[in-house]
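Is adenosine-5'-triphosphate placement plausible here? Inputs below.
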Amino acid sequence: MPKQKHIVSGIQPTGSLNIGTYLGGIRNFIRLQETYADHHFFIFIADFHSITLPIEKKVLRKKTKELAALYLASGLKQENLSLFIQSEIAAHAEMNYLLQCFTYVGELERMTQYKDKSQKASEGIPSSLLTYPVLQAADILLYDAAYVPVGEDQKQHLELTRDIARRINNRYGEFFAVPEPLIPEVGARIMSLTDPVKKMSKSDQNEKSRVNLLDPDNIIRKRIMSAVTDSEPTIRFDPLNKPGLSNLLAMFAALEEVGVETIVSRYEDKDYKTLKEDLTERLIAEIAPIRERYHELVDSEELERIFDEGGKRARTLAERKVAKLKEKIGLGRKRK
Ligand code: ATP
Ligand code: LTN
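Reply from A.M.:
I modeled the complex. C-alpha cells:
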C-alpha cells in the first residue's frame, strides 16, 4: 500500500469568522477533505503565530477553542483529520530554530506580509514578525506535507518553505517532501455590508460590516436589513454601479451554490426588502445549525479528546522528524 500523503494547514486564532470566511475559505476546505479523501489532514490552530503581535491572554484562549469548534461545526470531518494546537507540540519551536539556520535575513525581509505588518507595528518590531515564515515552514515540513491549502496571500511563504526544503535536501540528501500550495480558484468575494467596495473581513473593527457565524438570528436580520444598497430600486447584478445590492445577490448565489443569474431572475420583479428578507432566512438556515453544533462542542469533552488525539498523532511524527534532522546535522550524541 502506498504511504498515505499528508495535507497540512494552520488557522490563526484571531478575528471573527464570518459568512465571507465561511463561503470563501471554510467551505472550500471542507470540500478538499472530500477531494483528497485518501490523504491525512493535519490542521492546527496556529497560536504560536498569533503572538507575533500583541494579543490578550483571554482572547487567545477563547479564540483557540472557538476556531476549532467552528471548523468542526461547519462540517470538517474527523475520519482523516488530526486537529491540534500548535503550541502543544514543542517540535514546532525546535524545528523553527533549526530551519532559521538555513534561512537568510534577506529572504525574510523581502516578504510582503512582513513589510506590511512591520510598518504597522507601534512599539518596535518583534523579531518573530521577521521569522514568522520560518515557523510556518517548520509547521509544514515537520509533517512532510504533499499539499498546503492556503489563500493567495500565503503564496510567498510557501515559496520560501519550498526553498528551505530544497536547500536542506541539497545539503543532506533527500530529507523533506517539497510541498505544493493548494490555492482555491477565486470564488465569490463577499464584500463588507457597510462599505461594499471593501472585502468582508474578519478583522474589520466595524461589527456591522459582516455577519459572524456566531451571531444570533436577530443580529443576522439586523445586519442584512441595514446592509448598504442604493436608491435605484431595480434588482440586477452590477457590481460597479450597484455594489451593495450585487454583494447581496452574490452572497445568496454562493449560499445556494447556483449562478448569480439564477438569483437575479428569481428577484428581478421584486423589491429590495423582499430580497433582504429571503436572504436573511437563507442565512439563518445555514448558520443556525453551525452555531448550535458549535455550542455543543466548544466546552465539551469531545473537543478535548479531538485535541488530545490530534496532538498525539502529530507529536509522534513531528518529534521523529526533528530527531532525524538533528542527527543529520550532527547535533547531540550519535544515536545508536
Ligand atoms: P483579514 O482579517 O486579514 O482581512 P480575512 O478576513 O481575509 O482576514 P482569512 O483568515 O485571511 O480572513 O481568510 C481565510 C480564507 O477565507 C482565505 O482563503 C480567504 O480567501 C477567504 N476569505 C476571507 N474573507 C473572504 C471574503 N470576504 N470573501 C470570500 N472569501 C474570503
Ligand atoms: N500564515 C498562515 C497561517 C499558518 C499556516 C501555517 C498555513 C501558519 N502556519 C502552515 C498553512 C501552513 C496565515 O496567516 N493564514
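Short version: The CA atoms of residues 52 and 126 lie 7 Å apart.
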